């Protein structure tokens, strides 16, 4: 989810060859609900890098503030292994 337009997200997806669609939240309201922008604040035009590990039942099992995008997948994989142990 980003605050970019669908067109910007489509270009970003194509540039990096992502096999999934990126969602746009141009009015930033979903971002407020998920805590990537504080309610009542001015529009910020970029979302904090926050990710959620969601189980098959739709329960958020863990929230992450992503500070190291390059190493993030390893962190999530370790958490998945721990949850399945």
Structure description:
- The chain is built from 3 helices and 2 strands.
- Helices cover 34% and strands 13% of the residues.
- It folds into 2 domains: 1-48, no CATH class; 53-85, no CATH class.
- It starts with 5 loop residues before the first helix and ends with a helix.
- 5% of the residues are buried.
- Strand 1 (50-54) and strand 2 (60-65) form a beta hairpin.
- The longest helix has 13 residues, at 72-84.
Which helices and strands, and how do they pair?
Elements: H1 6-16, H2 29-33, E1 50-54, E2 60-65, H3 72-84
Salient structural properties:
13% strand, 85 residues, alpha+beta
Q: In summary, what is this structure?
A:
The protein is α+β, with helices and mostly antiparallel strands and 85 residues long. Helices cover 34% and strands 13% of the residues.
Quick one: overall form?
A: globular
Tell me the strand percentage band.
5-15%
Query: What value does the Rg take, in angstroms?
Result: 14 Å
Structural class: alpha+beta
Widest beta sheet: strand line-up: 1-2
Biggest sheet statistics: 2 strands, antiparallel
Q: Span between N and C termini?
A: 30 Å
Give the overall pLDDT as a whole number.
83
* Helical run tally: 3
Approximate helicity band: 25-40%
The ordered string of helix (H) and strand (E) elements is HHEEH
Residue ranges: pLDDT <50 for 5 or more in a row?
none
What's the total count of β strands? 2
How many domains make up the 3D coordinates? Answer: 2
